[in-house]
């Protein structure tokens, strides 16, 4: 596996348009009914210029970024993220990543990769974190 995935490998960027639909649908799908994720007027009353994406949607997009790159046999083991600048409608978040470490498992049938991920938008870094993913030996990408 390490012959396929190497420390230092950069993942291609993924551009995600931040739409109102994405923000609201992500909040509904994760059962997050906080008004700041679906009601622009109430969000403004609370000091935000508009609705903004919730952390569970961001977490899902980070997971998608990793599994899209490593393929359907990749298994997310740990996703540790921290939010920064909000994702507002009309912006674009660009996810980038780099493999920090690859460890062969003792059974030699799998490897574990640790990937540093950053998602930036027009006002700064929206998300930073690391993802630990298990990859079968000879796994598809």
Report the count of strand segments: 5
What form results from the Cα inertia axes?
A: elongated
Mean pLDDT: 93
Tell me about the biggest sheet?
A: 5 strands, antiparallel
Biggest sheet, spatial arrangement of strands: 1-3-4-5-2
Structural class: alpha+beta
Instruction: From the alpha carbons, calculate the radius of gyration and give it in angstroms.
Output: 17 Å
Percent range of helical residues: 10-25%
Low-confidence stretches: none
Q: H/E series, N to C?
A: EHHHEEEE
* Percent in strands: 35-45%
Number of helices: 3
CA-CA gap between termini: 12 Å
Summarize, please:
With 141 residues, this protein is α+β, with helices and mostly antiparallel strands.
Report on this model:
The protein is an alpha+beta fold and 141 residues long. The protein has 3 helices and 5 strands. The protein has helices spanning 20-29, 40-45, 55-70, and strands spanning 10-17, 75-83, 92-104, 110-121, 124-136. A 5-stranded antiparallel β-sheet has the order 1-3-4-5-2, covered by helices on one side. A hairpin with a 2-residue loop joins β4 (110-121) and β5. It is elongated, with a radius of gyration of 17 Å. The model has no long low-confidence stretch (mean pLDDT 93).
């Amino acid at each position: 596996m390490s012959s396929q995935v190497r420390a230092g490998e950069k993942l291609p960027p993924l551009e995600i348009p931040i739409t109102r639909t994405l923000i609201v649908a992500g909040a509904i799908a994760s059962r997050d009914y906080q008004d700041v994720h679906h009601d622009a007027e109430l969000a403004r009353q609370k000091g935000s210029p508009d609705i903004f994406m919730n952390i569970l949607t961001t977490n899902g997009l980070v997971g998608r970024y990793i599994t899209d790159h490593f393929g359907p046999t990749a298994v997310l083991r740990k996703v540790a993220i921290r939010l920064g600048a909000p994702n507002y409608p009309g912006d674009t978040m660009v996810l980038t990543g780099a493999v920090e470490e690859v460890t062969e498992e003792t059974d030699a049938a799998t490897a574990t990769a640790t990937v540093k991920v950053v998602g930036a938008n027009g006002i700064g870094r929206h998300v930073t974190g690391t993802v630990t993913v298990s990859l079968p030996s000879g796994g598809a990408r």
